[in-house]
Amino acid sequence: MGNRLVYAALVLAGLVMLAPFGWTVLASLSPGGVVEWPPGGSLGAYGELLRAMPFWRILVNSVVVAALSTGLQVGTSALAAYGFARLEFPGKEAIFVVYLATLMIPMQVLVVPLFIEMRSLDLVDTYAGLLAPTIASGFGVYFLRQAVRQVPRELDEAAVIDGAGHLRVFASVVLPLVRPALATFAIFSFMASWNAFLWPLVILRSPEFMTLPLGLANLHGQFTTEWDVVMAGSVVSVLPILAVYVLAQRHVIAGVARTGLK
Amino acid sequence: MSRGLKATAAFALAVLLAAGCAKGSATRESAPDGKSTIRYFTFSAAPDHLADLDKIIKAFEAANPSVTVTVETAPYADYFTKLQTAIAGNTAPDTFELNYESFVAYAASGALADLSGEAAKDDLSVYAAKSLDTFKRDGRQLALPASYSAVLLFYNKDLFDKAGLPHPTADWTWDQEMAAAKKLTGKGVYGDFQPVQFFEFYKALAQAGGAFFSDDGKRATFNSPQGVAAAKHLLDKPGTVMPTVAQIGGTPDYDTNLFKQGKLAMWHNGIWQFAGLKDVPFQWDVVVEPAPVKASAVFTNAVAVSPGAKNPAAAYKWLRFLTASDVTARTRIDSSWELPPLADAKAYAGYFDQGPPANRRAILDAVASATSPPVIVRQQEMQDTVTKALEQAAAGKTPIQKALDDAAAKVDELIKQA
Asked: Quick one: CA dihedral B162, B167, B172, B174, positive or negative?
């Protein structure tokens, strides 16, 4: 009985969460973006989307940029996390506090200094300039350090006795054990890159570099907006991230299950 | 890792780096054969008029083979974020678009090059004098007018005919509009729609014969009796002849859809709606807005040269072509891409006969009584303050006079702080 109530509540909460997405889909199928009952079934907005912008190019840009940014962030963060959790070096705590402090600075404050930095590196309007600020992540270092600290030191020591160096311990012992944390952080960083708007807006100029949020924003005019097309774009832009989430989620569950067996 | 694999990985990385650092089409500067490149940044071209802009550029480049124009676009809502960052980072585009409301702040901050020198060598009589003057500061021409749009009263002829009412005319008063709106409201039809916000208010204030600022521009005077009358004119509509804010519930384009569905008799909106109303299944027309004192909202966009432009003469030439060439006038009119700011009505040849609406000439009435929006350096804050005061009064939380008094005091502060 109690279980049923819990399930009912969960289903209800799930539906509430789903409602905006359902609305987005319905609006994308209704001419003018006005949802009425019975819902419209027009795919015109999707065709318009392809006409209004180089949609496939933009989609590929977004996927490549998000994948590279995620790979770089997870890589650098995991290495730094291992260092902070396992190595002893002077000023370790102080440096870590500085890392944490970067979490408190909002992007809006950083935009102009970052832009000037990219200009002096001559990276304005390049993929490299777009990616550079996302290579390292204070949040990733903090998050993964916590995960690495959960790994029993005895496992490292056993590996060291067998003759493994730091890189070997990191790659063969620690990384496999923090996979759930890696997957979680990968989802976070992929989403952050996928949804990023302000930095790409500022650093990119050429239409062929545009990412999805920029492309979607470009559908808004000074006086009028075709909402059905915007909604169609939103639907399409949600799909890849949904796929990433479903894939990574399986890793999260697998990781939890394996550590639970020990 | 095998040696071959390592080499492949290194090669892939090198390719990636090279591709990653390559500049995009809008930034490449190595123009061949001593050509100069002009960067142009715009919000009004995307998404619907990129091809039209391209047509203008092609014509310009054909006439000026030594100059190449590259375009960057951003949506209006984010355009100024990008422009400000580019200016702060010393990479401002050579030429860029501005709307009148932001022109003042940019002019005051020195982000616009003085065009007077180039303009003196040029004959500017093609421009409507009034629109040219709008972008002068202290006798210096800081931008060229590029396009304008006017706000008119749209009306559904079929609904008026069904109710047996005469169509609105150019000499209608506020009372006539309200009386007709009341008769037309009912059976799922609303009589009138005029948003309760800053841009409607400043115009209604001018229509009531009031002034937004004192003559020296240092004090807000919109809490005058005329201001109260203007606010009352706006606030009388929601809940009587027009849906309330709660009914609209933030739905985008609520009014557009209401009018398109034939459920709205009168509608205060801009000529940018013409294209979207092409295929509606009823007769409609436009007329200059009813008012005690004729005054119409006209929105103007302009184009300016950045002080850091590498080739100011070529930049000016491009803007001159972009704003006042025959190609531009024809392209704008053919594609309903706002109107060119030209003095000679012949430039609009054909536009007035395009119909619907039949009475496109109402635009000329609107221009003749054009009232520019009040502008200060802290524009957005002022607009938000006034809109919020009107909403407070609409919700019945504050009496109109008090809401306007409070807003005027806040705007006085904003003027002082700038």
From this structure: positive
Backbone angles phi, psi at B189, to 5 degrees: -110, 135
Q: What is the pLDDT of residues A8-55, one digit of tens each?
A: 999 999 999 999 999 899 888 887 777 777 777 788 889 888 887 888
Cβ contacts of B78 on chain A, cutoff 8 Å: 197, 201, 217
Q: What is the 3-state secondary structure (H, E, C) of B179-194?
A: HHHHHHCECCEECCCC
Strands B36-42 and B67-73: parallel
CATH code for the domain defined by A54-261: 1.10.3720.10
As assigned by CATH, the class of the B150-298+368-417 domain is alpha beta
Q: A261: which residues sit within 8 A by CB, 6+ positions away? A: none
A211, A217 in Cβ contact below 8 A?
Answer: no
Shortest Cα distance, chain A CAs vs residue B324, angstroms: 21
Of the partner residues B76, B91, B99, the one whose CB lies closest to the CB of residue A124: B91
ipTM reported for the complex surpasses 0.85: no
A198 interaction partners in chain B (CB closer than 8 Å): 81
Mapped onto helix, strand or coil, the DSSP state of residue B281 is: coil
Partners of B71 in beta bridges: B40
Residue of A250, A110, A235 lying closest to A179 (CA atoms) = A250
Residue to substitute from A205, A218, A227, A231, interface B, most B β-carbons within 10 A: A205
Query: What tokens does B393 get?
Result: 């009064």
* Same CATH fold assignment for domains B32-148+299-353 and B150-298+368-417: yes
In chain A, CATH 1.10.3720.10 sits at 54-261
B11 touches chain A (CB under 8 A): no
The domain ranges of chain B are 32-148+299-353, 150-298+368-417
Task: Check: CB of residue B72 under 8 Å from CB of residue B94.
Answer: no
Instruction: Convert the pLDDT of each residue in B3-37 to its tens digit.
Output: 666 777 676 666 666 677 777 777 765 555 678 89
Q: What's phi and psi for B40, nearest 5 deg? A: -125, 125
CATH 3.20.20.100 fits B32-148+299-353, yes or no: no
